[in-house]
Amino acid sequence: MLAQLNSEVLGELSDFLAQLKSEDFADLSPVLKTSSIGQHVRHVLELYECLISQYESGFVCYDDRKRDKSLETEVNIAMAKIRVLQANLLLEDKEIVLKMAVGEDFEMIRSSYNRELCYNLEHCIHHQALIKIACNQLDYITLPDSFGVAKSTIDYVKSLESSIN
User: Fold this and answer.
1) Model confidence at 165: pLDDT above 70
2) What is the CATH number of the domain that holds 97?
């Protein structure tokens, strides 16, 4: 179920990218000022990639990312990466040690694959919300209401609507 939710959110991201003009993907956003939509997409995809590629070792360090420039400048490469990630999300839950840089040292934090999937899901949704703001000026983009909104918020709004009716 958790892998499926992640796959769906990544699918929303891919559907969005399919609409986006290359220059709106790669150029600095006038709304975001210091970053591009592509940089946000790359960041999200590379965290998923870290989790999946480092899964076997049992240690995950999100600081050890490739920072592949093509993921932020080439829409088709980002969409291809999404498909690869979606195909590899369904892994057995197991204990994972999260290695996190803290100043010049590292913290080792006990976690699990499913916990890190939760983190990546929320992280992706958070960046989708930022991307949604950047798209306010792009009148050719159509986004679903769920884009950039946490699943718990969607469920809460639905419960309010059903209590009114």
Assistant:
1) no
2) 1.20.120
